[in-house]
Design goal:
Elements lengths: L5 H5 L3 E2 L8 H20 L7 H25 E2 L2 H37 L16 H32 L3
Antiparallel strand pairs: 1-2
Helix pairs in contact: 2-3, 2-5, 4-5
Keywords: Membrane, Transmembrane, Transmembrane helix
Protein name: MARVEL domain-containing protein
Length: 167
Amino acid sequence: QVPSFNHIQERRTTVKTAAWLLSPLSILKVTVAVGLVVCAVFLMDGRQQWWPYTILFCFSLLLAIYSLLTLISHFFQISEIERTKVISLELAVNGISCMLCLCAFLFLCWDEMRMQDGYWLHHSMLPPPYISQLKWMKRVAVVMGAFLVNSTLFLFTFLRVRKDGFE
């Protein structure tokens, strides 16, 4: 009896062409990563002010890395055997990320409203001297907008992956 090597063939990965990087899914993932890096850069100076800014900073970096890793996993298309597991995991993480970005947006809205009213006591300290309070509030507004856009982009990515899978 001749041994079958079908299981080896099933585990092979295929690589897509470079043109795939201009597909809607890859553009969505790169846009999400860029938006999250913007959040991290703008929150970098706030980490000493208040611990939630540190959490949002780390959250932004982790999700940016996740987005780029899933972009790579889509580019190096995995086998049929593992595809359903990875797609299920990606759908779950995209859904959770969408909700967490929306929660971060709402949290920063609350923080911005408090700062607009002149109430800064919930922070452990004021913004650094080289950043005025007004400039810090503008930074928070940019991060709020970026989290709202990222929430929407994670939703679009969720819907796209659910519809097309790895195509």
